[in-house]
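Worked example 4.2. Below are the chains of a multi-component assembly; read each line carefully before continuing.
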Amino acid sequence: MRDLVVHYDTPLGAVKATDAVSFSLGAGERLGIAGESGSGKTTMALAILRLIKPPGRIAAGEIWLQDVDLMALSPEAMRQVRLARIALIPQGSMNSLNPVTRIKEQILDALRDHDVRISRRQGQERVRELLESVGLRPEVADMFPHELSGGMKQRVCIAIAISLRPRVIIADEPTSALDVVVQKQVMETLAKVQQDLRAAVILIGHDMGLMAQFVDRLGVMYAGKLVEISPVRDIFTGPLHPYTRMLIASLPSFEEKGTFRGIPGLLPLLRDLPPGCAFHPRCPHAFDRCQRDEPRPREIQPGSWASCHLL
Amino acid sequence: MAHAAWRYARRNLSLVVGIVLLGLLALFVGIGHLVVDTSKSRPLSAPAIRPPSADHPFGTDRQGRDLLATMVAGTPLTLRIGFIAGFLGVGVGSILGFVSAYYRGAVDSVIRGIVDIGLTVPGLLVLIIIAVSLRKGLTVDQMALIVASLAWLNPARTVRAQVLSMRERGYVEVARLSGMSGPEIIVKELMPNLLPYLAATLVNAVSAAILASIGLEVLGLGPIDSPTLGMTLYWVNFNAALINGWWWWWLAPIVIILVVFLGLFFLTVGLDEIANPRLRRAI
Amino acid sequence: MRVDYLARRCGVFVLIVWIAATLNFFLPRLSGQDPVRTKLLQQAQLGGYVHSGIDAMVKDYDRRFGLDRPLWQQYLSYLRDAARLDFNYSIANYPRKVNELIAEAVPWTIGLLGTTTLLSFGLGTFLGALLAWPGAPRWMRYLMPPLWALHAIPFFLLGLVLIYLLAFQIQLMPMFGGYSAGAFPGLNVTFVWDVIRHAILPAMSIVLVATGGWALAMRGMMVTTQGEDYVTFAEAKGLRSLTIFVRYCLRNAILPQTTALALALGNILSGAVLVEVIFGYPGIGTVLFHAIRENDHFLIQGIVFTVIVALGLATLILDAIYPLLDPRINYRRT
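Applying the procedure described above to all three chains together yields the following structure tokens:
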């Protein structure tokens, strides 16, 4: 992804939901994107699949998948890319499945619309395999979404996401609405399928603990900008950007007991961003340059990028 | 301020159209009362069956009513029935719907049962039975009361649904937990959010009430001596004005009724837009 | 499983019928009018001669109609008769029985109402769905304003206008009635064509107005549905636009639309009654109109009762069908 800019048009002017976000993703790599709600993570995910709807629009940027610029594709070509090359596991699977159709239909219609020609018997077999690979019993195929629990629905979505063996899986907060035990199950399932497919995963979320356990590299977003992206170990042992540092510091740990440390202040309104660095009002180390110039991403160490004037 | 109002007007065109239409009607009635002699709306005030002329700009009908006077006198009567019935209906209905949703339990079951059954039955027919039973010369206000007796059903259902969904949302619980008393919650938290829906429901109820009253009148169950719009149409039908080619007789009431309904309709849509901004399309 | 739900709905139906019957029974009696006496007096006046034995006549008729027995007895026998659909004799058209008159009128009304409702619902829903589809042709947008404006006015108003324009001025269609005067009813082509010709204007008044309403409602439902999470996921799955439109949007939007149909039946009927009156169409509406004019209480009651029962039945059927469309409806108690 290079310099992705997504605008939302409001009566008061365009709001930049994401601003010049760039990163690269290696084959089979696990990348995490962390940030608070409203930092632009989901927007970025939808933008990759070109699912941004009015009043939003992709204002600028390129997204390259193995030598093909997704932004330049025709709508029909893009449709073919979805699920077959890049799959989405949506946030809030509570409502992501069609309430009036059976599970097996929802798996099969994706195959059908991607011109996979299989007989009815083969289709049933495929469905059974997919459900098994995510740890669901074959009876689930004939059920309706409302008959399943949250975790089961989420795993159905994973099953659909892998049904065409994509190269990239985007998991948008796949465990947000689930309890811890089910979370573990879902993440394990995700890890397993990713290994089977050798696909790359972009895991979007705000649970740093989860990120630590799962991803290879981690990017941090704030107010629509990617402020840091580094290997996950480096993020936790030596965070570069002040925001990342405060995020890590705010995580509760087993060793130190005491009061929680939060980040003072509130996320700025996207249409009312502070000048210069968007984080400077809340940054304890801000100095006068932070109010004037917007910091650009620079490679501070090999493999670690951050946008901060302090570095 | 004016600029913002203008911008909003452009977006919510319906609201503007509705207000304009109803405003025109109000003007018609207002100026009419000043300029026209409304006593001419009684029978035998003018020669019968005259097409529009300088003396009688809307013509006259078979019983010698000057139709312009009839329209000027009758329109507010019809509207009055609608408003009285509508307000009564929404008033009673809101209270019942609110009580039903807020207190739940047996009260809710009873009220909901009555509303559900009441709404399945075609209102006009029940009104017919009532009107026929009481047929000792209905006045305009009696008609309003009859229509009101059924007008509370729909508002009760709407308000109940709204309050129920508001209850589900967190802020009622939060308010209660932070120590606000019952009535305080009602007034400070629930009412402001309910207001746009109430307004839309009110306009709806008025529109439905006017329709019901006109329906009853066309069937001949209305106040016989009143020059209301519906009664005029009854006489039109009774005297076969259509076949006889007395076009001016039915043209005026139809146009006015059209303006009333279209005006109320656009107003409803406009109010809906305020209450439900989700339906706003991309700019 | 499903029995619980159906049983409950049937129970509600019976309740409706009972309430209708009871109201029907008590309301007219509230006013203290004696329909028999009134009618006899009317007849006497017409004849220009007041019979000295009129009291005796009233008593006699009272006895025949059963109006002289204690109230609770009348009520019980009324209920029993109503259950057998026996509504007594028509006061105005004595000695014809009420159910005869109703039975004659019902086919006309069902024909008109049935076809127009199905037509306007089907057409309107289809149009509404199309209007919500981004792939729809541009010219369809221009259909919206007239449909919008039309649906706000009552059916019979449009009927009046249509009569004037098409029946009077241009003389394209017949103005009144269900069939031409002097035509012989029978299952031959001429008669059937005659019936159709007479039904076109009343049908048009209803269809033109109602279609707009359904179209608007459906479009609204579709827009709401299109914003749902499962549609976003469907797009992320790379489904074809048509698949999403039909299986994800339409299939879901049709549910509240069907509920709306069940709720609107009462209103549609009320509107149709007025249309029939305007057109002199020989259905329930006109019979009711004449009954009101002639103060024929039994006929009025019979009609109102029949209509309420019929509507209750229709609603029941729709309610029974609804779970077939929406698998989320569990038949457990809510």
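Take a moment to check your reading of the output against the notes. Chain B is about 75% helix and 0% strand. Residues 67-103 of chain B form the longest helix (37 residues).
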